[in-house]
Design a protein that fits this description.
This protein folds into 2 domains: about 70 residues, no CATH class; about 100 residues, no CATH class. The protein is about 15% helix and about 30% strand. The chain has 3 helices and 11 strands; from the N terminus they run E-E-H-E-E-E-E-E-H-E-E-H-E-E. It starts with 7 loop residues before the first strand and ends in a 9-residue tail after the last strand.
Length: about 190
């Protein structure tokens, strides 16, 4: 799974980096209404591959060594961070993943990516009582009434205020994706 591009161009001159009202090249299809908008869950990404092996998504900062058995997916030219997968068993989330898998039972025939959420994951912004896996392909649809910078900004911030939703992920029928996080937008200065 490649890193999902952010819907709007990031302004790395600001700290933290915010987005500009300029569409990231290759994400224009979102504004054309070609995709399905879904909730972006705030946890950690894991993957079940075709061989039945679980992997944890991992970013490696520039100059840092990758963990053993790390599978590189891509490197971000702007930040220098490398994105890839490490075996779940060596991940710091292994114990919580094991709890989530135990609760859902066998995953035979299911492959793909999931968000691991729960009490010990990222401060539990999803307010989950237990560790669980949310299949990305089955993420909840969300409403984005106006496909403009301001409309998307408003929808993302409204969702975040309502229940802590991290953001929105759009899924194109051909497999492309784009994302936006509520925190990508500068605070409203009106």
């Amino acid at each position: 799974m490649n890193k999902i591009p952010t819907m709007f161009v990031r302004d790395f001159a600001t700290r933290p980096a915010r987005v500009l009202p300029e569409v990231t090249p290759g994400c224009e299809w979102v504004l054309a209404g070609e995709g399905r908008a879904t909730r972006k869950y705030d946890g950690t990404c894991v993957m079940l591959d075709e061989a039945g092996d679980w992997w944890a998504r991992r970013e490696v900062r520039p100059g840092k060594p990758p963990p053993p058995n790390y599978v590189v997916i891509s490197t971000d030219d702007a930040t220098g961070k490398t994105v890839g997968w490490e075996p779940i068993g060596q991940s710091s989330f292994a114990k919580f993943h094991a709890e989530a898998v135990r609760d859902i039972g066998p995953c035979e025939g299911i492959t793909g990516t999931f968000e691991l959420v729960g009490p010990k994951i990222n401060g539990n912004p999803e307010h989950s009582d237990l560790h669980r896996l949310v299949e990305h392909a089955l993420a909840l649809d969300v409403a984005v009434p106006e496909l403009t910078f301001e409309g998307i900004r408003s929808a993302a911030l409204t969702l975040a205020t309502a229940d802590g939703c991290e953001g929105i992920v759009w899924h194109h029928p051909d497999g492309r994706m784009a994302k936006i996080k509520a925190r990508d937008f500068a605070p409203d200065r009106r």
